[in-house]
Design goal:
It contains four helices and four strands; from the N terminus they run E-E-E-H-H-E-H-H. By secondary structure, the chain is an alpha+beta fold. A four-stranded mixed beta sheet has the order 1-4-2-3. The radius of gyration is 12 Å and the shape is globular.
Length: 84
């Protein structure tokens, strides 16, 4: 998964040019993706753009979560312990 996070005025999520709810249709999969944001406790909203392919939908959600965690650490190195 390729994840790009950009600070924004409101949170927006795009996965393969679809909204988060359209691509990951169950609440469980959506929660997997937002886990890194919740764990970091960051209040800054981001625009998240994701390109993901291959494997099953659950594995894609896990890959996106991993990408989000790495992008958050790139944004602020102090978040490393909280998202690990």
């Amino acid at each position: 998964a390729r994840v790009r996070l950009t600070p924004a005025s409101e949170a927006k999520f795009s996965v393969n040019d679809k909204t988060l709810a359209d691509y990951f249709q169950t609440e469980e999969l959506q929660n997997i993706i937002t886990d890194a944001f919740k764990a970091s406790g960051i209040s800054q909203p981001f625009t998240m753009t994701v390109k993901v392919s291959g494997s099953g939908i659950h594995s894609q959600a896990e890959a996106v979560r991993h990408g989000v965690a790495r992008a958050l650490v790139s944004y602020d190195i102090n978040l490393k312990t909280s998202v690990k």
